[in-house]
Design a protein that fits this description.
278 residues; 9 helices; five-stranded mixed β-sheet; alpha/beta; single chain
């Protein structure tokens, strides 16, 4: 039975769609040019015939997005909770069937917090209360390894380089990028990576999480739920993001690019073994 559970995967579509589309534009000199724009589609999530939310998404990884969203919102705990995910872009919907009904679904839906997430995100239920049960390991991060990771991340951002208008997030281990996902919002990209971790049963204790967006309270909460102790970004951090990272014990590094970075929490976890050349 345990072997069957370890190998369990719900029935899922593979409905990823094109991420960019060709268009004709005129530049500042009046010249006609061909370029690409980023796709954006609504995806309505239904769980056991109950409408949950509409997400605006790039559409490259819809099944992973749905999985991660449901986990990070506290609707599901394990991959075994999900029986089937069927994404149909003709009706812009993701139909989720669970193996057993979600407890207190109506109560969770009644408690909503509008967040600073791109496109106005929403948090359901008592997420803040659940955070008290999360215990994260204390990491050690070599400065030299972090520099190598920052260099390696430059090779990604494919959609951004082609058409812009997206955020990118990555699950990293040491100086390697294990998975990189782009979406129109950083919270969507984060949820898709959470879905990947849930599906593949990947633990977060030895991982780092990268985002191109700012480190808000929502980002810190999601990374804590994924069990990842290090969060970093090329952008800045908000006051509540920093306060929560201290409370949760998450090492937060912002303004990270090239040889420069600022450690807002967890400076004792960084081993300064390679100072930048002046």
């Amino acid at each position: 039975m345990n072997k069957e559970l370890n190998n369990y995967r719900p029935k899922m579509t593979n409905a990823g769609i094109e991420s960019s589309f060709p268009v004709s534009v005129m530049d500042e000199s009046g010249n006609a040019k061909k370029t690409h724009i980023t796709g954006e589609r609504p995806l309505i999530i239904y769980v056991d015939k109950q409408e949950i939310v509409t997400l605006m998404t790039l559409g490259k990884n819809p099944e992973l997005l749905v999985l991660g969203y449901l986990q990070n919102q506290g609707f599901i705990k394990n991959i075994e909770d999900i029986k089937e995910i069927h994404v149909d872009w003709e009706v812009d919907s993701a139909i989720v069937v669970t193996n057993s009904r979600i407890d207190n679904l109506e109560e969770k839906l009644s408690k909503r917090t509008v967040t600073s997430g791109c496109g106005q995100g929403t948090v359901f239920g008592n997420i803040m209360e659940d955070l008290e049960n999360i215990k994260l390991p204390k990491p050690n991060l070599l400065q030299s390894s972090f520099y190598e990771l920052l260099y390696n991340i430059k090779k990604y951002n494919d959609v951004y380089k082609k058409s812009g208008a997206v955020h990118g997030c990555a699950l990293c281990k040491s100086d390697n990028i294990e998975i990189f996902i782009e979406d129109v919002g950083r919270h969507n990209a984060t949820d898709a990576i959470a879905g990947h971790m849930l599906l593949e049963k990947i633990e977060g204790g030895d991982k780092l999480f990268y985002t191109t967006g700012r480190l808000t309270s929502e980002m810190v909460i999601k990374v804590a739920q994924m069990g990842i102790p290090i969060l970093f970004s090329r952008a800045g951090i908000t006051q509540m993001g920093m306060e929560l990272s201290k409370k949760m014990g998450i090492t937060t590094i912002a303004r990270a690019g090239g040889k420069h970075f600022l450690i807002y929490n967890g400076s004792d976890t960084i081993i300064l073994d390679k100072k930048p050349k002046k």
